[in-house]
UniProtKB/TrEMBL annotation:
The keyword Amino-acid biosynthesis does not apply. It is a multi-pass membrane protein. It comes from Acetobacter vaccinii. This is Cardiolipin synthase. SMART domains: PLDc. The gene is cls.
Length: 456
């Protein structure tokens, strides 16, 4: 009866055929062990929890979505993309924004710290990794000083990325009186299913009018100019204008999802005046009600590409449908360039990637290896017009399991800048010869690592 009930549940709730077959096999072959594993790791309780919270709050997440900012129709090649993403996210495409590209912690941290110093009303900070090292300590010092002068401060760190058993920065901020929370963190065995789910977003919003987002964590390793032992290069963005409201909404929802505290709208969700000309929109993804939305946006952009697609990612392990769309774009004459690190900070991911890129080379796409230091940037530019930047890697974990945030922009000048940034890292072209020249044991290792793509 137990096995039959589990099989029925799998048939009703698992959309992915391979996943459904795998779980049914485990439950049938190992009835009791399989049942425990499925109940712990096979059921997406986050979606159910998100829907429950939305129902509990009468206005739900939509309470964070009322905007007085203006929309503007987009004509031309990317009009279908703008329409699709609008329907997908229920967020408007807003104009009047100013977006500045910042490189590494050397370029981003001083501006972030200055914004915190100048805060008058509120600070919302979300970070996957927030270390209690030299730069982390400096951020903590600035946040504590802001809190003492009366600024409303909220800090959310990931329950795994910022330390699962020990999280020094969390305890330091809490002891200093700052409301700080750990996303999806619990040491209770019955909450173990949430361990595999991470808040990978990096968001800072100050006074509702200045925002920062991208791929940059808070750690000494991102200060590349200081030559840390394991340097991590990255790209972050300073944002001003109406789009900051959407950025703040995401952070506010994550805070509510974690703590059940509804933030004061007048402090944290203010309307920002227009300061530029860029059209932009926030796109979120996660295993809740935003499942796969970032991937859908990227897939639609790939189908509309006519000239070029540039992708820069620290890990390249997407699913088959993403590889297929990129391959088809290359076959129809679009120049597809994918830039990945020569060596990332996770060797197993590098092994799996080697096997994953072979189909793209067959279609004519170009794969490039970027020289050290390890580059953690997540950038996508299509036809030097549309850009997509943020926290999401191109792997199954980011596209399906993590809570991620990206931003789409329709700005030829910004796209040109990002396109040049990506092309500067085209250091070594990966060829069929490189893949074929691997030893037999290396190929076996790489193929074996690829089996663990959903968990890497």
């Amino acid at each position: 009866m137990l096995t039959a009930g589990l099989v029925l549940h799998i048939l009703l709730h698992k959309r992915n055929t391979s996943s459904a077959i795998g779980w049914m096999g485990i439950c049938v072959l190992m009835p009791y062990t399989g049942a425990v594993l499925y109940l712990m790791f096979g059921i997406n309780r986050v979606t159910r929890l998100a829907r429950k919270l939305i129902n509990i709050r009468a206005d739900g997440r939509q309470a964070f979505s009322r905007q007085s900012t203006w929309n503007r129709d987009l004509d031309g090649q990317f009009a279908p993309l703008a329409l699709m993403i609008g329907k997908l996210t229920s967020r408007p495409l807003v104009g009047g924004n100013s977006i500045t590209c910042l490189h590494d912690g050397d370029g981003a941290y001083p501006q972030m710290l200055q914004a915190i110093d100048e805060a008058q009303k509120s600070i919302l900070l979300c970070s996957y990794i927030f270390r209690n090292d030299r730069i982390g300590g400096l951020f903590a010092e600035k946040l504590i000083a802001a809190h003492k002068r009366g600024v409303a401060v909220r800090v959310l760190v990931d329950g795994v990325g910022s330390g699962y058993f020990l999280s020094p920065i969390y305890h330091h901020l809490r002891r200093s009186g700052i409301p700080c929370a750990r996303f999806m963190h619990s040491l209770y065995p019955w909450k173990m299913p949430f361990i595999n789910l991470r808040d990978h977003r990096k968001i800072l919003v100050v006074d509702g009018h200045t925002g920062f987002m991208g791929g940059l964590n808070i750690a000494d390793e991102n200060l590349v100019s200081t030559r840390p032992r394991h340097p991590v290069s990255d790209t972050h963005f300073r944002i001003r204008g109406p789009i900051v409201r959407q950025l703040a909404e995401v952070a506010a929802w994550d805070w509510y999802f974690t703590t059940r505290e509804t933030l004061d709208r007048d402090l944290f969700l203010q309307e920002a005046p227009g300061t530029g000309t860029t059209l932009a929109r926030i796109v979120t993804a996660g295993p809740d009600t935003d499942l796969e939305k970032i991937e859908y946006a990227m897939l639609q952009a790939i189908t509309l590409a006519r000239k070029s697609i540039r992708l820069m990612t620290p890990y390249f392990l997407p699913g088959d449908r993403f590889l297929t769309e990129l391959g088809l774009a290359a076959l129809r004459g679009v120049q597809v360039d994918i830039i990945i690190p020569l060596r990332s900070n996770h060797r197993a991911l590098d092994w799996a990637c080697a096997t994953n890129v072979s189909p793209l080379l067959n279609s004519g796409a170009r794969v490039w290896l970027a020289d050290p230091p390890f580059n953690h940037s997540k950038l996508m530019v299509v036809d030097k017009v549309w850009s997509f930047v943020g926290s999401s890697n191109l792997d199954i974990r980011s596209l399906r399991l993590n809570f991620e945030i990206n931003m789409e922009t329709y700005d030829a000048a910004l796209a040109e800048t990002l396109d040049e940034t990506i092309c500067q890292h085209r250091n070594h072209r990966l060829t069929h010869y490189d893949l074929d020249n691997r030893g037999r044991l290396t190929k076996l290792r790489d193929s074996f690592a690829r089996l663990f793509m959903p968990y890497l």
